[in-house]
Amino acid sequence: MRIESIPVACSHCGSHDLAIGVQMAQNAEVGRIGLHYKDGLLLCGTEALLADLCTACGQVQRFYVRNPNHKWLTYSDNTQLVASDTPSPMAVSPGSRN
Q1: 47 touches 35 (CB < 8 A)
Q2: pLDDT tens digits, residue range 84-96?
Q3: Taking CA atoms, which of 12, 17, 22, 72 is between 20 and 30 Å from 53?
Q4: What does the pLDDT average to over 25-52?
């Protein structure tokens, strides 16, 4: 497992004013925001999505979860929800709509 370092300066403006570990939230009470996983036969959950944020310009430096060691639920090419056997980084290309 690769351990990422905590950013020390904003990649956009160079500021050192960073908020580390800001949890994603939503206004309506419709559940938790995060990445879905299934551990075991019945246990399903949501791992909170965290962000490191520059408080000077608002640039998000990175998104991450505290515990990457889950069996992550992903969408296969045929849009069925399937469990991934190995953790994989969340990759979203610019302009994509997942």
Answers
A1: yes
A2: 555 444 444 444 4
A3: 72
A4: 80
- What mean pLDDT comes out for the span 61-86? 73
Q: Is 10 exposed, middle or buried (0-12, 13-18, 19+ CB in 10 A)?
A: buried
**Gyration radius (Cα) of the chain, Å:** 15
Place of tokens 């036969």: 41
**CB within 8 Å of 86: residues ≥ 6 apart:** none
Task: For the chain, give the longest Cα–Cα distance.
Answer: 46
The SS3 of residue 81 is strand
**How far apart are the C-alpha atoms of 83 and 70, rounded to whole Å?**
10
- Residue 12 tokens, joined: 């956009």
Cα–Cα distance, 11 to 69 (Å, whole number):
28
